[in-house]
Amino acid sequence: MRFYITDRIRLFFRKDRESYFRFYKILGFFPGNIHIYEQALLHKSSSIKSEKGSLINNERLEFLGDAILDAVVADIIYNKFEKKKEGFLTNTRSKIVQRETLNKIAIEIGLDKLIKSSTKSSSHNSYMCGNAFEALIGAIYLDKGYNACKDFMEHRIIGNYINLEKIARKEVNFKSKFIEWSQKNKITISFELIEQFLDADSNPVFQTEVLIEGLSAGTGIGYSKKESQQNAAQMALKKIKSSAEFLNEVYAIKEKKMKDNDKQTEEEPIEFITSPDDIFSEISELISEETELPGTDELPIEEPKP
């Protein structure tokens, strides 16, 4: 991307030149339409109204940036690991674009200091910086195009803040993280084996479904029950992360069950045959049977957006 000397000279006569240079320090180039980048750092708690009365914040740019980032990272690792199969590429991309990784990157490049927000850090906005990073990618795409997004990730982020070889070797125990999330939020989950069949080479294949408060949250296939559960848990975590509507439905069911239990308790004491702790203890025993995988804290656990 070229930025001519005459353009740089003109910047010195602009009132907002400091903002341009702040973005240049992060991006490695000067913004064309700086307003898009400023919007990328505008948290919904500090939304402003447009002339038409609609609220302006970074949520739409975050949505766009999430999709562009997936494509850009897939593009980079596809060319980096030429001999690796689809499963490896998918897992490596997931480790890079997960909220916790993006949150760390955003803080390291100083994006956290530029975010405009009127809310304090808490459980539901702990990934505010990572979300802003995705919105920034969306802004780069709208302002400069796909190639600029790829250049930014390839030359400014990967190598400086991400070691592709190292991150590719890390394993993530999705099932363990899923159980941690359910315990933290006191949510009932279960893994159900729904099908077992043979592949073209007569190898047994298992398909597992994950239920959250009785709702289907994803299915996974593997050559062992444990592998299918890991893949199903990964799908469930992705749904938890991406679907506020699904989470609202889960919490509505949970709240209704709590109210029903309270009503029954008032009428007649109930003797619980199996406590929630016992249930999770049983599930944890399944995890302990697996080989412990490093890096299980790499996947972010998010609260539903309000």
Write the layout of secondary structure elements.
Layout: H1 5-11, H2 17-27, H3 34-40, E1 48-49, E2 55-56, H4 59-80, H5 86-97, H6 99-108, H7 128-144, H8 146-157, H9 164-169, H10 174-185, E3 189-198, E4 204-212, E5 215-222, H11 225-242, H12 244-267, H13 276-288
Antiparallel strand pairs: 1-2, 3-4, 4-5
Helix pairs in contact: 3-7, 4-5, 4-7, 4-8, 6-7, 7-8, 10-11, 10-13
Protein described:
It is built from 13 helices and five strands. By secondary structure, the chain is mostly helical. It is 56% helix and 10% strand. The longest helix has 24 residues. The C terminus is likely disordered. The radius of gyration is 23 Å and the shape is flat. The strands form two sheets. A three-stranded antiparallel sheet has the order 3-4-5, covered by helices on one side. The protein has a two-stranded antiparallel sheet with strand order 1-2. Helix 4 crosses helix 7 and helix 10 runs antiparallel to helix 13.
